[in-house]
């Protein structure tokens, strides 16, 4: 994995090493968001309702095909092959679920179509089917895009300053501790974020995405948080009825295990797009929207780029222009790369290697040693 995707990756090993290891500039860019927009052909901003629904239909068809194969043929296999078949089904179906989540994510940004009500309807139905609170995450995620990489105000992937590290972080830099941290994060990361605001902004009180009166939301958004909760309750009831009819083991094999794989990929993708030794975090004395937005990293997942609708290969662009649909994002990224220059970060390291490396190197953030208190923080791992 990590090669053969849709991105125009650096062509030489020296360029790859430069992109992977060299810190990006932290000075004010010599271009504006308006300059970047002018570099993108206007038709890349156009959203096609028909084309977007095609991808919904394609993903749902794949889900149906894999479901049919699993329920029709797996019981005919010898037990040893049956176990392997189920493991394959969980991974493959989980990847397709992740693609559907990406479409829901685009709905939340109004990148699915030019009709916000259509986007919200599609996103709410599909997100609820994946046991995710659509409107709750839509609003909290908008806070992330408004404050990307701000130490004080970013909503998620908030980096920890060394002086604020908890006692257990000293074990994170050891292989066993790192492995346990990875397993826990990949399996529990998304539900912990929704329920306990894990890795989210510190509001100095208990924060839950299911609570309409959580400080994340304003008065205009509370009703929609209630609606998200109703969607989850309805889905849970349907799953309960299915478990009564088909059995809990059947439900776990068909639905729950692919859902866990999906949650793992969501954590993996978003973590790797926002954690890298080459990208900084800023405090309030230095942060501005453009520099914070540019401090993200594009990644290559090989054949999974298409399955994930190029979510990871065009993440920098997505933070700059959230309404550009995924089917235009790769070409739009190519259009802005010459202008961004060193402000564009790409790492083609295979994602499984990058996950281990970034978990090792990106434990906390700290300023460089020196006389200048410039409000720029970099990832470090020495405890």
From TrEMBL:
Task: List localization entries.
Answer: Membrane
Q: Alphabetically list the UniProt keywords.
A: Membrane, Oxidoreductase, Transmembrane, Transmembrane helix
One Pfam family in the UniProt entry? FA_desaturase
Q: Name one GO cellular component term.
A: membrane
Give GO MF terms, alphabetically: oxidoreductase activity
Domain Fatty acid desaturase residues, every copy: 85-345
Where does the source fall among the domains of life? Eukaryota
Region described as Disordered: spans on this chain = 1-27
Can you cite a GO biological process for this protein? lipid metabolic process
Broad class of where this protein is predominantly found? membrane
The transmembrane residues are 55-77, 83-104, 179-196, 223-240, 247-272
Similarity comment text for this entry: Belongs to the fatty acid desaturase type 1 family.
Q: What is this protein called?
A: Omega-6 fatty acid desaturase, endoplasmic reticulum
User: Native species of this protein?
Assistant: Capsicum baccatum (Peruvian pepper)
């Amino acid at each position: 994995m990590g090669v053969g995707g849709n991105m125009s990756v650096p062509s030489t090993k020296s360029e790859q090493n430069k992109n992977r290891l060299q810190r990006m500039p932290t000075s004010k860019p010599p271009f504006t968001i308006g300059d970047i927009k002018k570099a993108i052909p206007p038709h890349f901003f156009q959203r096609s309702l028909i084309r977007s629904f095609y991808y919904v239909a394609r993903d749902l068809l794949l889900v149906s095909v894999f479901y049919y194969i699993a329920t029709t043929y797996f019981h005919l296999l010898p037990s040893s092959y049956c176990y392997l078949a189920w493991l394959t089904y969980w991974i493959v179906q989980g990847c397709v679920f992740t693609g559907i989540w990406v479409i829901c994510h685009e709905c939340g940004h109004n990148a699915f179509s030019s009709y916000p009500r259509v986007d919200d309807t599609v996103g709410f139905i599909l997100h609820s089917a994946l046991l995710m609170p659509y409107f709750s995450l839509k609003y909290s995620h908008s806070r992330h895009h408004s404050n990307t990489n701000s130490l004080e105000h970013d909503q998620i992937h908030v980096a920890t300053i060394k002086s604020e590290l908890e006692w257990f972080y000293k074990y994170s830099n050891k292989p066993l501790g790192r492995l346990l941290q990875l397993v826990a994060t990949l399996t529990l990361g998304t539900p912990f974020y929704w329920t306990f605001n894990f890795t989210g902004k510190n509001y100095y009180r208990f924060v839950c995405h299911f609570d309409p009166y959580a400080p994340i939301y304003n008065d205009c958004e509370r009703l929609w948080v209630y609606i998200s909760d109703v969607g989850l309750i309805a889905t849970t009831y349907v799953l309960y009825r299915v478990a009564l009819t088909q059995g809990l083991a059947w439900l776990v094999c068909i639905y729950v295990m692919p859902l866990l794989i999906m949650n793992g990929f969501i954590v993996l993708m978003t973590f790797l797009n926002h954690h890298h030794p080459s990208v900084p975090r800023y405090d309030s004395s230095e942060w501005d929207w453009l520099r914070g937005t540019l401090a993200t990293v594009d990644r290559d997942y090989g054949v999974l780029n298409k399955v994930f609708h190029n979510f990871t290969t065009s993440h920098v662009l997505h933070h700059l222009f959230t309404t550009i649909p995924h089917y235009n994002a790769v070409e739009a990224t190519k259009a802005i790369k010459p202008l961004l220059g060193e402000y564009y970060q790409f790492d083609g390291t295979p994602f499984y290697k990058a996950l281990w490396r970034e978990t090792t190197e990106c434990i906390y953030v700290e300023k460089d040693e020196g006389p200048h208190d410039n409000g720029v923080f970099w990832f470090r791992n020495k405890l």
